[in-house]
Amino acid sequence: MTVKLLLRYSPEALDKPILAQVIRQTSAELNILHAELDAAKGEILIGVEAPPAEIEKLISLFKRNGIDAKKLEHAVELNRDTCMDCGACLSLCPTGALRLKNDYSVELDDDKCILCEVCVPACPVRAIKVTKL
Amino acid sequence: MVTKTYEEINQRIRDGDAVVVTAEELVEIVRERGAERAVKEVDVVTTGTFGAMCSSGAFLNFGHADPPIKLGGGEIYLNDVPAYSGLAAVDTYIGATAISTTKGLEYGGGHVIEDLVRGKEIVLKGKGYDTDCYPRKEIETTATIQDLNQAILCSPRNAYQHYNAATNSLNETIYTYMGTLLPNYGNITFSGAGVLSPLGKDPNYETVGVGTRIFLGGAQGYVAWEGTQHNPGKAFGTITVIGDLKEMDPRYVRGCTIDRYGTSLYIGLGIPIPLLNERIAQAAAVTEAQIKTNLLDYGVPRRDRPVVREVTYAELRSGKVEVHGREVPTSPLSSFKLSREVAQKLKEWIQRGEFFLSAPAELLSRDSVFKPMKQAVGVPLAKEIMTRPVVTGLPTDPITSAAKVFAERNFDHLPIADKNGKLVGIVTSWDVAIALSTKKKKLSEIMTKRVITAGENDSIDAVARKLEQHGISGVPVVDAKGVVSGIITSEDISKLFGRRTR
């Protein structure tokens, strides 16, 4: 299973090649899922497939470099009680994490979700919630 | 030819012998056994849809306060959403698209209606003017749907026979009543229940009419009239519907917010179609592969949006549609799952003898047409007010050449075009001023490459909105090929308004 790590950069850390340095110190394969960086702040979401010990090592490597790294679990939730299966979200999802089941109900594949949040305001009944805190 | 009557069908419902199938099931039956056998074997076909229907609302009556107040002619707010106050003292109409004065687009009339159906308490605030018979001027109270004398869902336009699909050619995301449309034909949205579409299954309007009993929001309701904009000739038929909100089920009455567009109401609606003859059976057996609609470019903010291509509901339902050689993902905006559920529920009601068919008192018009708004003053188009010919620069031109143009001609915007006239950037007098302190030489080094543009046929209202949204003072106008044909500045628009009011 892919573990998602959210990396929060401080403005000072933004101009250092920290990601590259960390990658060189680990055997884990990282995949950048989503990144938002500007002058004031930076957030990179990475997906890692590695044993738990390796993940912990990664987190401490990032932390040592001044980056707030944390594991995201169940950061996105589709409230099935609220969802009316309209499908407005489907074509906005860049990874196919939101999809229709055979019975035409909408399902969310947590694993595939990159937390881009495009679907959140587009849901007419606010059934999708993303919690990154 | 086999025929049957409403009376015969209702007798069979009473006897528990009626054969009822959903429109999806009928497709298979007609395919396998033909329309004639279908009429012999099946009595009723049920349809269903569950989609956002903006022309929805409810009449409510609060009863009189003591001392009494006349809200008619005053102001009425339900959970801070304005309701209509042009009726008698304590009657109102709450429409789905009315927007909260405190929460904006997050809460509207559609949500008020859902909350009423859920049995939630609603805050009523009202103002009136005092008369000899209605001395009170203000009121604030709470009420649930049970406290109301009547709560009547009455919607002038529901259940579109079919609808256009939407996409967006612009290089920016747009937020429309067809949902969020990604740039560069990034996605497609569509609505309607396709194979289950209530009016789509009686496209010749042979059974649906005034007084047809229907499934409405989980209760039994009626078709009251043809809907507004009813346009059966173009397969855009609609109905006005009415039903008791007090009996409805919140599962089928859902307030919603369409991002950055507005609020609306999702309604579950189903119509039973009696298979009176073969023609009706044949029409009701139409498949999604046979139901066509136009994919329109909502990037063009005009009444007549360009058709990108024709598509079938089967293609739209598949999740991907080809546009200009690329596979584009689709979003249904109507829930097919709930549409099915409505058709299934209606089928069960009839099978259990809880729902009988009503012969229409009058059939709906088959030749209404949908006319455009009669506008006293036409809105000018970009091509009519733009400055042309327009002076453009080449990317390779020196920055000084732009400075010269600005100084001599009193312009502030210089569109940059390639040798073929195609727009590649824009330089403003401000860019030139800033460039003075740098070592930059060519216009290509200082030009803005992502240019906000207007189309030749954009209305000036759309152009004015663009200037305001992006905080800019001018836009180049481009033709269909991206060639610069003119320029419009905020000054041009102000001048025009000056002329209009004079």
Topology, please?
The complex is a heterodimer of chains A (133) and B (502).
Chain A: E1 3-9, H1 18-24, E2 29-37, E3 42-49, H2 52-64, E4 68-72, E5 76-78, E6 98-100, E7 106-108, H3 119-122, E8 128-130
Antiparallel strand pairs in A: 1-3, 1-4, 2-3, 5-8, 6-7
Chain B: H1 6-15, E1 20-22, H2 23-41, E2 44-46, E3 49-52, E4 57-61, E5 75-78, E6 81-83, E7 91-95, E8 99-100, E9 104-108, H3 109-117, E10 122-127, E11 138-143, E12 150-158, E13 165-167, E14 174-176, E15 179-181, E16 188-190, E17 209-210, E18 213-216, E19 219-226, E20 239-244, E21 253-258, E22 262-270, E23 272-274, H4 278-284, E24 292-297, E25 307-312, H5 313-317, E26 320-323, E27 326-332, H6 336-351, E28 362-363, H7 382-385, H8 399-409, E29 413-417, E30 423-428, H9 429-435, H10 443-446, E31 454-455, H11 460-470, E32 474-478, E33 484-489, H12 490-501
Parallel strand pairs in B: 1-2, 13-24, 16-27, 31-32
Antiparallel strand pairs in B: 2-23, 3-22, 4-7, 4-12, 5-6, 5-10, 8-9, 10-11, 12-20, 14-15, 17-28, 18-19, 18-22, 19-20, 21-22, 24-25, 26-27, 29-30, 32-33
Helix pairs in contact in B: 2-4, 8-9
Tell me about this structure:
- The complex is a heterodimer of chains A (about 130) and B (about 500).
- Chain A has helices at about 20-25, 50-65, 120, and strands spanning about 5-10, 30-35, 40-50, 70, 75-80, 100, 105-110, 130.
- Chain A has about 130 residues and is of the alpha+beta class.
- Chain A has a four-stranded antiparallel sheet with strand order 2-3-1-4, with helices on one face.
- In chain A, a hairpin with a 4-residue loop joins strand 2 and strand 3 (about 40-50).
- With about 500 residues, chain B is of the alpha+beta class.
- Chain B has three domains: about 5-55 and about 155-160 and about 175-285 and about 335-365, no CATH class; about 65-150, no CATH class; about 380-500, CBS-domain, CATH 3.10.580.10.
- In chain B, about 25% of the residues lie in helices and about 30% in strands.
- In chain B, strands 3, 4, 7, 12, 18, 19, 20, 21 and 22 form a nine-stranded antiparallel sheet that branches. A four-stranded antiparallel sheet of chain B has the order 6-5-10-11. In chain B, strands 1-2-23 form a three-stranded mixed sheet.
- In chain B, a hairpin with a 2-residue loop joins strand 26 (about 320-325) and strand 27.
- In chain B, helix 2 (about 25-40) packs antiparallel against helix 4 and helix 8 (about 400-410) packs across helix 9 (about 430-435).
- Chain B is globular.
- The termini of chain B are far apart.
